[in-house]
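Encode chain A's predicted structure.
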Amino acid sequence: MSLFEAFVQGVHDTLAHLYDPAYRPAEILWTVMGCDPQQGPEAIRATLIRAIKDLKPASDVPPTARVRRIHGLLYYRYVQDLTQEETAERLGITPRHLRREQREAAYVLAQRLWEQGGVENLLAAETVPEQQVQPQEWRSQLRQELASLRDSAPDIVADVGETIRSTAGFGSILASKHDVSLEVGEIQSNLSSIIHPSVLRQILIMTIGQLAQWVSSGQIVLSARHEEGRVEIIITGHPAAGDGLPGDSLIREVLTIQGGTVDIVAEGDRISFQIELPSVDKAILAVDDNLDMIRLYQRYVVGTRYRIVQATQGHSIFETVEASAPDVIVLDVMLPDVDGWELLTNMHEHPATRDIPVIVCSVIREEALALALGAALYLPKPVQRQEFIRALDQALGQRSNRA
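Encoded structure for chain A:
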């Protein structure tokens, strides 16, 4: 285990005992965080709480942003000392999802603390030889390259199944060096994720290369599926050739930047990398004849779980709904071919659309009429990104509650 990985584990364990006066944090925490052991565990606790509060995002960060959820999880679960169930309720997620998110949130916090003082404090304390300190240059370079890739193609998403299949050939070359065979197992259809395909391909290659060293003369199988609004990629190797678990520091670093997570699970003679990625799994049907508005909506949902399906005319709305199966409909009532108010009434009554929440987004200031005719919400144009995403979240929540 590297020093950084030991520090991450120490932060995770200390968070779980944050208010336990008898708990003694690992020695590496005192060194990295620059705390005096004579001050007792309270010094570590105060530093962790301050770091969690420093993670609070700016007010203009969308409520659905991952950084906001990570901060909320750390604050509710550890600073306020709420239970897992209470924290999950505050965040609007399931306890099972929360348990998966906890370790990733602790990793983000540990990474921030390490970057603020880790290497300098370790060297100053001379507790370990310099050559054992994990270099940080690659982290900075990695962030720069990923940021550049996102900026060059901000709207791109990965077809997960296609990316896995196209990567299998490269993965087989790596695996064969360890006399390991590689197979593509079951992959559910229509898996899309908010990640550049090149980044996902590199994550898969790194994982296969890492796992192949632990299942020499064995087999690796790749599969993927939907799991509670996320895309889960499972890379399993067997039989395991040794004790312990493979390292995942670099893989975790890349995934964290992309909003993903990774867990390594050992079961019998099998070792699995379980990778979770944000899914683009909520279709929003935007009914608007203004193509500039459609493009604006598309820019608004970049980096979220939503994708925009466009319809510029209202007369074929029910055929479009059948083909796209939208989760929410955003309707402009000023349409060239039909009266938007009549269309809203018909959608509220039609069996194909009556269970789909409709957000009326229009320059016509008639909120009361929109709600009376069956709209779930009303947004006046022009609409800002934050209120647009918030309205989608709210409409989707209403649908879930009814279900």
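The domain at 282-402 is CATH 3.40.50.2300 (Rossmann fold).
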